[in-house]
Amino acid sequence: xxxxxxxxxxxxxxxxxxxxxxxxxxxxxxxxxxxxxxxxxxxxxxxxxxxxxxxxxxxxxxxxxxxxxxxxxxxxxxxxxxxxxxxxxxxxxxxxxxxxxxxxxxxxxxxxxxxxxxxxxxxxxxxxxxxxxxxxxxx
Length: 139
Known about the structure:
- There is one protein chain.
- By secondary structure, this protein is α+β, with helices and mostly antiparallel strands.
- The chain is 24% helix and 30% strand.
- The protein is built from three helices and nine strands.
- A five-stranded antiparallel beta sheet has the order 1-2-3-4-5. A four-stranded mixed beta sheet has the order 8-7-6-9, with no helix packed on it.
- The chain is globular.
């Protein structure tokens, strides 16, 4: 007979993140403004999470994990030849070290939060946006 896995509550997830050396603080104004949203950070990376009512999942990831630039979580942009870190005010080329740290942060966050990990996400760092010159502007 298979054992059922206990689903932690959102408060238990926050406690687990704190014990794994994540900095947990209430989300700032730039968040998606969900009730009870928190910014989780470690090193140079951060993400925003909130409680969910979905069965079997205590946490909803509000913003994809990203690099902190000027207090903002930078989105990962793929232009085919290079990945970039983009905020509302700044866009810089991403280095291999930054991509490794984002990937490591994402793995640790999802493991500690009990979030389902998809195969393509586990293989490497996925981008939020893909923009290739040859397809840009097509309908």
